[in-house]
Automatic annotation (TrEMBL):
One Pfam assignment: UAE_UbL
Protein's GO biological process: protein sumoylation
Protein name: SUMO-activating enzyme subunit
Coiled coil: none
Amino acid sequence: MTWRTDEYKKRLERPLLVIGAGGIGCELLKNLVLSGFKNIEVIDLDTIDVSNLNRQFLFRKEHVGKSKAEVASAAVKEMCPSVNIKHYHDSVLSDTYDIKFFGRFMMVISALDNKKARYHVNRMCLAARVPLIESGTAGYLGQLSVVVKGRSACYECEPQVIQKSFPGCTIRNTPSEPIHCIVWAKHLFNLLFGEHDPDDDITPELESAGTSSEEAESGTATKISTRKWAEDHNYDLHHLFDKLFSSDIKCLASLTDLWKDRKKPQPLSYNDVLEQGEGSSGTESLKSNEVWSLRAWVNTFDESLARLRNNMKTPEGEPDKVLAWDKDDEDAMKFVAAAANIRSHIFSIPLKSLFDVKSMAGNIIPAIATTNAIIAGMVVVEALKISNSQFDDLKTIFINSQPNYRGKLFVDTHPQVPQKKCYVCSDRREVAIKLNVNKMTVKQLETKIIKDHFCFVQPDVMETKTFQIVISSDGDTDASMVKKLSEMGISGGSQLEVDDFVQQFGKLYINIVNDDELDEDDFDIVDDTGDTEETRKRRIDEEAASESKRVRVDGDAPNAMEV
Ligand SMILES: Nc1ncnc2c1ncn2[C@@H]1O[C@H](COP(=O)(O)OP(=O)(O)OP(=O)(O)O)[C@@H](O)[C@H]1O
Ligand SMILES: [Zn+2]
């Protein structure tokens, strides 16, 4: 590369898009302007939080609450006034950023923190034929890779690992680890204060626990909506506490089969706690990294419940506000930590500090500024190669947790070649999915499979034999969302064609394999390789005979940052 020639400088004037102005993004923007890139656009949907200040060094205390994209752009413009920098305080998933928008850039650099946005950017760059540098860190680990259509593997060439969550019955009936109680408490938060989601059910699962329907009906845990129940009781602490921690638990404890090999839970009533004495002082002085007493957690439950209830209130006559779970909302966090620890106590599970619960509930891996800085530095090296059309020299870079056989933590390799059967960047975009057509609804197909698993943004889905439109992005099919797939004429052997009006990376064909054993929201990726019909069938038979790979995907899947 020839440095500092006019031609070199000219190349750096071509526009470049940075997506994400967080940990990596701040370092990166600084590096880019100091390296001579002159026309930069940056998108970030978020505002600055106090917790960002320790590492996102372009931000100061007075910027808290302001747009990350805006403040980061202004800060680097100050470092290098000759740079043209444009910001968008917005989600990259918005259809404003279409193929034409992406097509304007010499390259795109992704400094994101979630799979959905990363997959979307990968697809948009492939469709617009713009080189992408994809970067990520997770604690001391870091990686960057370059995606150039036809030359290197795309971000989705490696089959994705399906995030497993905990079976519903473990959460509702038989928790054995702190995380099970934390997931339960997050569901409770949503049920009481958040948006309704049937997957957040927390009532004991009597039928699957082997009770007769008579027992289930006579049990105290009959299925009425927890929200409705709480509203009817005016969110009264005493009532709520006794339902969640005493009567529901008594009901579970009465299912003797469940406790043959496990310790039976001990119901805890509000009066039991009061009788234990132990004082009732406030919890402000307690340290967040220490494990508090049961009484302190009950006080915390009490205080946070009252505050959250208050936060929901709206002027007379208007419906209550819906609260969203956020690990950085102190009341929400304390409520979940308290509910989780009280439940842990009942099930003889070790209690956890507020700090630990926050890490687990927020799936937090500590962000390390140095890892971000190294990766952001290396991104610029690759960006300079792209600007100079040195595509053969591009590298994939890893920062590992253990030295490799050469004693190196910091490793570069040649980019992988594109996978011939990648359902995103190859010509064969076909997968087979095992599900229960008689139980799964169109809504579950859309949410769990099409949007959460395959990360489509505005999908249209059609059955290819009958041309029946199953899901329409313009809302025409909303009325049939509650229907089972079989009611829409979908059966084993059906093929669905999925198209996304925003992503436009090509149509994905999903071959349906029916399995009557699966629950309504369970599914298996039977084959994501795009093999021929014959090979696929043989493999499906072999897989059916081998151990089941059943998974359940839901919102509580541990969602470690991807690198
Ligand atoms: N769909 C999206 N569109 C635009 N920006 C996004 C999108 N999704 C995530 N981001 C941004 O990507 C950035 C990722 O940065 P980072 O991993 O440092 O996360 P953070 O939210 O700043 O920090 P932390 O998660 O550790 O609190 C964030 O600033 C986030 O707002
Ligand atoms: Zn690919």
